[in-house]
Each structure stands twice: as C-alpha cells, then as structure tokens.
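From the methods appendix. Each design record in this collection lists the tokenized structure first, followed by the designed amino acid sequence. Records were kept in a plain field format so they could be parsed without special tools. The example shown here is representative of the layout used throughout.

RECORD:
FOLD TOKENS (222 positions):
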C-alpha cells in the first residue's frame, strides 16, 4: 500500500481579495444584463464576500455566461490534471521557514527550497538582501513581503506566472518592477510587495527557475 498522501484538490485553495472582487464584478454585470434580480444579487454578493476558497466562489457564477467581448475565465484545474508547467497545488500550504531577515551594514539571502510565510519582513540598513522565490513553497496562496530599505537595497525574484502586486512607497528611493510578469498561471500564488524605501530601493525581477518547477524537492523529509 502506498504511503503517499493524496494531494489537496485545487478548489480548496484559499481565494484572495482579488478573486472575490472579480466574482462581485461579474455579479454586478449580471444584474445590469437582467440575468439576476436584486434579491439573487444580494444573496450571492454576501456569499462572495464570505467565501474563503475557490470551491465556495465557483458556484456563484457557474450559471452566468462570460461577459461579451471577454474570454471566459480559465477553468480551475483539478489536482489530477494540473496545468502544464505550473504544479502550484503541491507547493502551497505548510509553515513558513522564517518570517524575518535583517541586514545592517551586511547582507541576507533566502534562496533555493524554502517556505514563504503569510507575511515576511525584510529590512536592509546600509546593506542588501536577496529573496529568491523561484524554488520556494508558499504557506498560503497570498503572501505579503514587507520591505524596509534605508540606504540599502532588497532584490526579490519570482518565477513567471506568479501574480505580483507592488505597493511600496519610495522617498528618495524606489520600488521597481521592470519585468512584465506575463499571464498568471492557474493556482499560482499572489505576492504582495509593500514597505518603504529611503535612499534605497526594492527591485522585483521575473526569472525562470533554474530547474523545472515540478522537479524533486531538495528538502529531506523528517
């Protein structure tokens, strides 16, 4: 008998605020089109904002056609049929490896196979730091990386297909995302980069992993 644990079905993954907002927008369009009356709309609206997973969101728009002129949203793949090149279901969930990195007149680095916690704080003061997420796992589907760079710099590298949202503020400094992330892969995590840069900078780069995303884990199982 196999000792392997069954993979968690993708629809059980937790939905983000952006996922809920997209459903709410479609419901509003459906009211304007006459497909839903106000009572149905209010019921589904309340359900959308209370939803925590894809499995709870999907039924709210399942009986509504795609908006004219827009492509229908890509179906959420099951664990038995993951999207090619994007084995994200197996990389989301668990406990963060660490939640803080500080460089004071020095440097820090997180790379290889590690687990990004729901919130990671990175501080660089007269120093520099590197966060490489290309081979990382994620404690949950949406994670926040809060950066404080004072006369220093922090570089964040993510693989293509990840949803990146850069919200940081720079004063005589900058939060910079030069590379286009391209289309988001189904089930991929969302990385929100926030914080403050003063006479320093935070740069987000998009690079392909050094090895296939579905490659064997470098971690030893205890």
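DESIGN:
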């Amino acid at each position: 008998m196999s000792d392997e644990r069954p993979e968690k079905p993708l629809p059980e993954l937790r939905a983000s605020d952006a996922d809920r907002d997209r459903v709410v927008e479609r419901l509003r369009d459906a009211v304007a089109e006459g497909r839903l009356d106000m009572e149905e709309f209010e019921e589904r609206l309340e359900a959308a904002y209370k939803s925590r997973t894809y499995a709870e969101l999907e039924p709210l728009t399942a009986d509504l056609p795609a908006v004219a002129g827009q492509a229908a949203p890509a179906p959420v793949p099951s664990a038995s049929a993951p999207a090619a090149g994007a084995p994200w279901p197996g990389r989301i969930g668990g406990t963060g490896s660490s939640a803080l990195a500080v460089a004071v007149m020095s440097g820090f680095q997180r790379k290889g196979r590690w687990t990004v916690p729901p919130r990671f704080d990175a501080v660089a003061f007269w120093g520099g730091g590197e966060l490489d997420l290309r081979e990382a796992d994620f404690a949950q589907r949406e994670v926040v990386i809060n950066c404080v760079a004072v006369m220093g710099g922090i570089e964040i590298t993510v693989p293509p297909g990840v949803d990146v949202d850069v919200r940081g503020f720079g004063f005589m400094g900058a939060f910079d995302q030069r590379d286009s992330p391209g289309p988001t892969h189904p089930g991929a995590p969302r990385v929100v980069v926030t914080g403050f840069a003063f006479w320093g900078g935070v740069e987000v780069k998009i690079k392909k992993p050094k090895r296939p995303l579905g490659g064997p884990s470098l971690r030893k199982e205890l």
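APPENDIX NOTE: Residues 1-11, 69-86, 214-222 have pLDDT under 50 and may be disordered.
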